[in-house]
Amino acid sequence: MDLDLILNSFPKLLSASIITLKLLSVSLMIGMFIGLFFAILRIKNNIIFGKIAYVYSYIFRGTPLLVQIFIIYYGFGQVEFIRESFLWIILKEPYWCAVIAFALNTGAYTSEILRSAFQTIKPGYIEAGKSLGVANKIIFYKIQIPIAIRQSLPAYGNEIILMLKGTSLASTVTLMDLTGVAKYIISTTFKPIEVFVIAGSIYLFMTFIIHNLIKFLEKKYSF
Amino acid sequence: MELLLFGETGWGDELLIATLMTLAVSITAMLIGFVFALIFTPLKLSNNKFLNLIANFYTTVIRGVPELLVIYLFFFGGSSAIMFVASIFGYNDYIEINAFLTGAFSIGIISGAYSTEVFRGAIQSIDKGQFEASNVLGFNKVTRFFKIILPQMLRLSIPNLSNVWQITLKDTSLISVTGLVEIMRQSYIAAGSTRDPLLFYTVAAVLYLMLTFLSMKFINKMEIKYNRGY
Fold first, then answer.
1. What pLDDT does residue B19 have?
2. Nearest residue of A to residue B177 by CA position?
3. A172 and B177: CB-CB below 8 Å?
């Protein structure tokens, strides 16, 4: 164990974890909307939209995140009309490419989680709303969505942790997140164990916080 | 399109071999994971607090740390660790370990952590009466495990193991950073030399989709087969 290296690299890794957290929170927020949108498409009984949503989630859950990032970062840069359009302002930045890939990926998983939550809502709740003369829209926004979000909290907590680990792939498109900096320190000092211990503990600490936050929310909104 | 043809000018045959490589690494990693799971599941279920702690440490750390970081640990740390052990025995030359083994081992450790959780859950959901009945019938612990618990445990864990398999299959794409030529690495090489990344990464995505689709079909069949009696 090289104590000097540990003390020297700790601040570097800590400041790199800010990028990790930024990537995580931005892509989770966008992914939540994508997930909700596709989950609603799935539960509405429209065959075509339901199929589209199913194919979307199947493709993004069936391929590795690394492939998705590479297609967006390396692949789209090759297409002429994307390079000439306004999209290029966003797609030339590795940060936004990573965010788009993460958001689409987590959106696919979130849509599955929310879909199953919507489907497990007891029909009694909806019937009760209907018999009280509540409009369908209000039933959806005031009854179905809150219950579905509560139901999906445990699974969504797992998804957040998976996504936290997923953000490490941003380092493959030149972003210096926690894993990127860790790899840089390892390849310059050839001390993998020390760096792994620090970077790993930072990740574990974040996992721990997320885990407890979700537990707290579960308790708060339990019924 | 002719870039994907087989033969000298196309990348078709290379990609096919790379797909087989991905499959080989995934299967090896899954098997290594089973070995880890068979070691750590009993520790997790034992009444000894210390053994519990070791098993929980393993599953928590591996499942909480990014896969890429674990791969870097073994990729950069693996050969120096082996060289250290070899130097004790008086062998001081540089040893380079095989990219396949490093990759399969690091992914295996990861999938082992998930498999441990799956097996633990499966054993815990076996009816208590099964344990009691086998005790009453006078089976010893080994026979009880292999003849009574293991067959039921495997049946109960097939659905969750199929998730672990999917995770493992997708995780192998990360081994490409160590230079092992599997689907991702081969697409990277092809994309670099033809300047057509969009085509090759899309092909890679399609290949992964095919692998997941076919393995799901296979697992579903297995599930039906092992649920015949229920």
1. 94
2. A172
3. yes
pLDDT number for residue A62: 92
Cα dihedral A85/A90/B194/A58 (nearest 10): -100
- Euclidean distance between CA atoms A153 and B184, whole angstroms: 34
Cβ of B77 within 8 Å of Cβ of A203? The answer is: no
Kindly list the structural domains of chain B, giving each domain's residue range(s) and its CATH number in brackets, ordered by start.
15-226 (1.10.3720.10)
d(CA B30, CA B112): 7
Q: Which of B64, B66, B208 sits opposite A64 (nearest CB)?
A: B208
Selecting from B174, B196, B212 the residue whose C-beta is nearest the C-beta of A62 gives: B212
- Sign, CA dihedral A96-A101-A104-A106, equals negative
Chain B 201-220, CB below 8 Å of chain A: which residues?
201-202, 204-205, 208-209, 212-213
Please judge whether B174 and A66 are an interchain contact, meaning their C-beta atoms are less than 8 angstroms apart.
yes
- The answer to whether the CB of B200 falls within 8 A of the CB of B191 is yes
How many contacts does A have with B, using Cβ atoms within 8 A?
Answer: 115
**Mean pLDDT throughout A12-25?**
94
With beta carbons less than 8 A apart as the criterion, state whether A88 and B229 touch: no
What global pTM score does this model have?
0.89
Is pLDDT of A142 > 70?
Answer: yes
Kindly list the structural domains of chain A, giving each domain's residue range(s) and its CATH number in brackets, ordered by start. Answer: 3-220 (1.10.3720.10)
How much is the pLDDT for B67? 93
Residue B218: how many CB atoms within 10 A of its CB?
12
Query: What does the pLDDT look like over B110-119, one tens digit per residue?
Result: 999 999 999 9
